[in-house]
UniProtKB/TrEMBL annotation:
UniProt GO molecular function: oxidoreductase activity
Biological source species: Marinobacterium nitratireducens
Keywords for the protein's UniProt record, in alphabetical order: Oxidoreductase
Protein name: Methylenetetrahydrofolate reductase
Keyword Oxidoreductase: yes
InterPro entries referenced in this protein's UniProt entry, alphabetically: FAD-linked_oxidoreductase-like (IPR029041)
Length: 309
C-alpha cells in the first residue's frame, strides 16, 4: 500500500471512534515552547500544563539573556523542566556561551538545551552551527541535548535543495550520542502535513540515524497568523494545507487545529511501532493558553494539568 493510500485509509479509520484514544497516545509527554514576553502573559503555568511538561524557551535575537534566565527560573520554580534555546549564530564567542550556561545552571538548574544554528544569515561571532557548540565541551554535564530537524529540507544548509549536508550533520550528531551520556533527540520545525514527516523520518532510519524525533506542530491559531509564521520560518510543501484552507470560505474564519496531522501520525505509529517520532512539540502560535486548553480538551489525561487530575 502506498503512503498516500495508507494515510487516507488510516484517517478514515480514525473517524470511526478511535480518534480520542489515538490523540491521547500521541499527545502523551508533549512539550511546548515559550518566549519571555509570552510567558509574562501566563499567570500560572501549573494551571494550564501537566506536571513535568518540558518547556522550551525560544531565544530571539536581541532578547537579553537576563530575560531568558528569569523566565527559566520562574518555570523551574513552578516545577517544570526547562530547555532553553542556544542559537549558534546569535552567540558571539565561547566566553559568552559559558556565561549563558553558568547563569541558566546557577539560577534555574538547567540541564537541558536545544542547540541550533539560529535564524541569522550572518553569524554574530565565531559560531555557525550546533556542532560547533557541542564541540566546545561546555554542554558535557547536560543530561539532555536536542538538535534541530527539518522534515521539508533546509536551504540555509543545503542551497541546492538536496539533504546532503543536513544528513552529514545528523550522522555526526548520532555518532556523538553514542559516545556521550547525554540523551540526544531531534526537535523539528513545524509542518502541516503528515506525509513529508513520515517520509523524512523513515529516510533517517534507512540512513542509520536513529535519534528520537520530537515532531514540531503549530498549535491552534488563526489562518493569517499561521501563514505569516510559516513564510518567515521557511515551512515547505506542507504549507499547501494552509493555502487550500484559505480558499475555503467556510474554514477561513475558523482557527486551524492540528487534529488531522496528529491523527495521521498516531495511526502510522500504531501500525509501525518503530516509527521514529517519539513525542510532539508545540509552537503555540495562537497563544500558550489556547494551545494548552486545546490539548486538555483533546488529549484526555495526557493533556490535563496536575491540578485538574
Amino acid at each position: 500500500m502506498g503512503l498516500f493510500s495508507f494515510l487516507t485509509k488510516s484517517t478514515d479509520a480514525s473517524k470511526e471512534g478511535d480518534a480520542p484514544r489515538l490523540l491521547e497516545n500521541i499527545l502523551r509527554g508533549y512539550s511546548i515552547e515559550v518566549m519571555p514576553r509570552t510567558a509574562e502573559k501566563v499567570e500560572s503555568f501549573r494551571d494550564i500544563l501537566p506536571a513535568g511538561t518540558r518547556v522550551y524557551i525560544a531565544h530571539i535575537d536581541g532578547t537579553p539573556i537576563e530575560d531568558m534566565v528569569r523566565t527559566a527560573r520562574r518555570l523551574a520554580d513552578e516545577g517544570f523542566p526547562v530547555m532553553p534555546h542556544f542559537p549558534a549564530r546569535v552567540i558571539k564567542n565561547r566566553a559568552e556561551l559559558a556565561n549563558w550556561i553558568a547563569q541558566y545552571q546557577g539560577e534555574a538548574g538547567v540541564k537541558q538545551g536545544l542547540l541550533l544554528g539560529g535564524g541569522l544569515n550572518t553569524p554574530a561571532g565565531e559560531f555557525d552551527s550546533s556542532i560547533q557548540l557541542i564541540e566546545t565541551g561546555l554542554f558535557n554535564d547536560f543530561e539532555r541535548l536536542h538538535v534541530a530537524g527539518h522534515p521539508e529540507g533546509n536551504r540555509d544548509i543545503d542551497p541546492d535543495g538536496s539533504d546532503r549536508l543536513v544528513m552529514q550533520a545528523l550522522r555526526w550528531k548520532r555518532a556523538f550520542s553514542q559516545r556521550t551520556d547525554a540523551k540526544l533527540a531531534i526537535t523539528t520545525q513545524f509542518c502541516f502535513e503528515a506525509a513529508p514527516v513520515i517520509s523524512w523520518a523513515n529516510r533517517l532510519a534507512e540512513e542509520g540515524i536513529d535519534l528520537p524525533i520530537h515532531m514540531g506542530l503549530a498549535g491552534p491559531a488563526k489562518l493569517q497568523t499561521l501563514m505569516k509564521y510559516a513564510m518567515s520560518c521557511g515551512v515547505g510543501p506542507s504549507m499547501r494545507v494552509l493555502q487550500r484552507r484559505a480558499k475555503d470560505v467556510s474554514k477561513l474564519i475558523m482557527p486551524y487545529e492540528p487534529t488531522d496531522i496528529l491523527l495521521e501520525l498516531a495511526n502510522y505509529k500504531e501500525r509501525n511501532p518503530g516509527f521514529g517520532v517519539e513525542q510532539v512539540h508545540f509552537f503555540p502560535l495562537g497563544g500558550i493558553k489556547a494551545n494548552a486548553d486545546w490539548i486538555s480538551e483533546n488529549g484526555g489525561v495526557s493533556g490535563r494539568p496536575a491540578l485538574a487530575n
